[in-house]
């Protein structure tokens, strides 16, 4: 009947849409997602644990301070207030992917992730 064929057509369309949604969810949407999935970043990476040492003894941090502006100079109290940009660079070998997985990820040179997902060193400056 016409009603039954219309209902089966709607059912097929719903199943096709559901299948497309499931396959879209199963395959990463971007290179960032592909690398994060391969590294198991959201399931096995523990940001609370320090990465393995670079040289066997400690992790090397490269710290760069860029002067943006001098905000205030108080010569009587020998104080200066600066506005700076702080850039800290380190290597976390747990996040390396080149040569680890299939070659399709080797052409990805960098990904963007929120810093809150990654281990970050405790670097502070006081009265410098």
UniProtKB/TrEMBL annotation:
A single GO cellular-component term on record: membrane
An MF annotation (GO) of this entry: extracellular ligand-gated monoatomic ion channel activity
InterPro entries named in the record: Neur_chan_lig-bd (IPR006202), Neur_chan_lig-bd_sf (IPR036734)
Neurotransmitter-gated ion-channel ligand-binding domain ranges (all copies): 40-127
Q: Does the keyword GTP-binding apply?
A: no
Q: Which Gene3D superfamilies match?
A: Neurotransmitter-gated ion-channel ligand-binding domain
Report whether Ligase shows up as a keyword of the record. no
Q: Which UniProt keywords apply?
A: Signal
Q: Where is the signal peptide?
A: 1-26
Protein name stated in the entry: Neur_chan_LBD domain-containing protein
State the organism of origin.
Macrostomum lignano
Q: What is the lineage of its organism?
A: Eukaryota, Metazoa, Spiralia, Lophotrochozoa, Platyhelminthes
